[in-house]
């Protein structure tokens, strides 16, 4: 009797037949532009708009204007949008971070000032202190300090 039950169960577990699909279409390939950013990535608010510096803004300050992206400690995503730059070196920014230690991805707006070749932001609402030193017109050395830890990395200009 046990052998008959095992045979009956095996017969019931056969795979169902599937009918062929007429004119199968390949799945559309995801592109970099259409693929969503990984959930642990730094994502700036789409409403963040760069205001081009006015003609009276010194070139050494205007050079900071734009969006910069990179990684801190070689593994933590970051994006810095320098939204406005005044003739006196004052700036407004939006900073986005991905997973950073035990902090979940987020965005914080802030302001600061450029002195020499370094942009120093006032403390962001999340408690972070950020400085960005211009190494070249296309590269910033960024230091991000939060909760007693300092993370550093090189950010490249991604748009002006």
TrEMBL record:
Region named Disordered: 15-36
Domain of life: Bacteria
Compositionally biased tracts (Low complexity): 19-36
Record-given protein name: Lipoprotein
Protein species of origin: Mesorhizobium montanum
